[in-house]
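ok, trying the design again with the full structure, not the truncated one.
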């Protein structure tokens, strides 16, 4: 065994030999101040050790059976099935069903304006033909925040926007959009930016989610429950915006909004390390970073509603373009309930022991053909073992995912993957979870027909109305490690299993094809110029 002592013997890093193979391990001897930091975050020493060892071992690639595609893991819904699902959804709402819209909204908009920041830092007014900035200037009258931009440039430069354009002062115009002394759009969260233009003024994504909720998730009392996850430094801005926009939206839609917010829990932060995997020390302290999108599984776990819709903050459209979004969101909700109805019926039969061998065969067929869970081990099980297996597989959180055709957008997609117990099931994978040296897997990725889900609807209570403990259904081996920096120093950071990737790995999953018209994310500011975002 070899040991390396770091900083007053505070941290120990070692290599041991096990079964004639070298394995690197971490053992921590934390200082009192480190222990206090961990206690303040709600992180155990064991978690820190596990994270440090994961930096050394890395995350394993997933074993894939095949891509999911229509009629092989993805359902294409007929008109009759769609009508039945809509009827089931409306029945649920009319009879007091619980539903909440859960919107991850903590992300900053800085990446939306990457090209604009680069242009401002370039120190020239010259526009490169075909560049994002050139396209933005050429269509500046289509921007939903045009009135605010006009007022801002007048205040900053004492000239109106049209004059600045005529004088070729493009850099000043772009700076007015992104920099703190202007509109500060580069420093705000996406949820607070103006996205869509209306006669009465422009709306933010927050307002569009309120409007969408009014059309799809109002309960029998006319109340819509929404939950936004926000960052601590932007929470007050969200509170102020909601206080401003809820009353007029309630007046316009005729519903009442019950809006709550939460922040990513400090207990989901992950430790950072140096390039050699030793703990990264900054200002004499261990450095922890937010655990990424997957940390929100704990926020989702706090939601009280049985049914929860999940959709990112930036995937919204104006009223005039929302028809398909509303229709298919309700269809997905209805399909969720139909699947849950069958699962509930089967679990009750299993618990009360009122089933035949034929019933068990039918349940296995449902597991295979609807939930797309398959396991060769079932063939050799007796009836008692099959019953226990079915109970375990059916009694899990359930999600229905709306999948669109892949039209070249970056991101992961739907696959049929192997689970730790040897079964296969539908999983949403990111490219970094797939072994790039495996030629068969590379071919699968290249020929995948569908993209990441644009809408999820989840059932997070069991058949007795008790909430599932969602963190216990996470596959901890599905995170990833990335290279970052802090104050100019290189470091390695760990992201927890993604919210709809590994964080939902052990859920029952149904993939349903939905039209591309339901997928309109705003990844860059130029996306606001697309037809889908023009009212």
């Amino acid at each position: 065994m070899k040991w390396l002592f770091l900083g007053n013997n505070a941290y120990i890093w070692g290599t041991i030999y096990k079964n004639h193979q070298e394995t690197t391990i971490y053992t921590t001897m934390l200082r009192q101040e480190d222990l206090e930091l961990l206690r303040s975050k709600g992180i155990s020493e064991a978690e820190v050790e596990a994270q440090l060892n994961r930096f050394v071992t890395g995350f394993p690639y997933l074993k894939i059976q095949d891509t999911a595609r229509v009629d092989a893991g993805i359902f294409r819904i007929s008109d009759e099935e769609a009508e039945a699902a809509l009827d089931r959804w409306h029945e649920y709402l009319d009879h007091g069903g619980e539903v909440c819209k859960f919107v991850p909204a903590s992300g900053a908009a800085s990446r939306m304006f990457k090209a604009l920041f680069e242009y401002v830092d370039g120190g020239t007014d010259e526009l490169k033909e075909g560049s994002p900035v050139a396209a933005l200037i050429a269509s500046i009258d289509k921007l939903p925040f045009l009135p605010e931009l006009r007022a801002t440039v007048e205040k900053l430069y004492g000239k109106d926007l049209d004059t600045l354009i005529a004088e070729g002062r493009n850099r000043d115009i772009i700076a007015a959009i992104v920099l703190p002394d202007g509109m500060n759009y580069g420093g705000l969260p996406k949820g607070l930016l103006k996205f869509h233009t209306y006669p009465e003024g422009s709306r933010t994504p927050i307002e569009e989610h309120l409007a969408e909720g009014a059309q799809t998730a109002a309960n029998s009392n006319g109340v819509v429950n929404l939950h936004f996850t926000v960052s601590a430094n932007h929470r007050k801005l969200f509170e102020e915006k909601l206080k401003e926009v809820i009353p007029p939206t309630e007046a316009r839609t005729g519903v009442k909004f019950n809006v709550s917010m939460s922040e990513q829990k400090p207990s989901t932060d992950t430790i950072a390390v140096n390039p050699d995997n030793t703990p990264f020390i900054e200002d004499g302290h261990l450095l922890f970073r937010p655990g990424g999108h997957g940390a929100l599984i704990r926020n989702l776990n706090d939601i009280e509603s049985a049914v929860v819709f999940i959709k990112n903050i930036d995937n919204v459209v104006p009223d005039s373009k929302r028809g398909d979004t509303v229709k298919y969101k309700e269809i997905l909700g209805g399909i969720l309930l139909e699947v849950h109805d069958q699962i509930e019926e089967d679990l009750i039969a299993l618990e009360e022991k009122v089933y035949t061998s034929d019933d068990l065969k039918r349940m296995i067929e449902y597991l295979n053909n609807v939930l797309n869970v398959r396991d060769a081990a079932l063939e050799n099980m007796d009836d008692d073992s099959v019953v226990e297996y079915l109970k375990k597989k059916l009694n899990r959180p359930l999600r229905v995912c709306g999948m669109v055709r892949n039209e070249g957008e970056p991101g992961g997609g739907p696959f049929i993957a192997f689970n730790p117990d040897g079964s296969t099931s539908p999983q949403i994978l990111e490219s970094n979870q797939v072994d790039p040296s495996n030629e068969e897997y590379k071919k699968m990725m290249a020929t995948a027909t569908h993209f990441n889900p644009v809408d999820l609807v989840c059932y997070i209570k069991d058949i007795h109305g008790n909430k599932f403990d969602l963190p216990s259904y996470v596959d901890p081996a599905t995170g990833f490690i990335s290279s970052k920096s802090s104050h100019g120093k290189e470091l390695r950071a760990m992201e927890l299993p993604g919210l709809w990737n590994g964080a939902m790995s052990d859920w029952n999953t149904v993939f349903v094809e939905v039209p591309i018209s339901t997928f309109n994310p705003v990844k860059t500011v130029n996306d606001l110029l697309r037809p889908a975002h023009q009212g």
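Keeping the full-length input from now on. Residues 1-20 have pLDDT under 50 and may be disordered.
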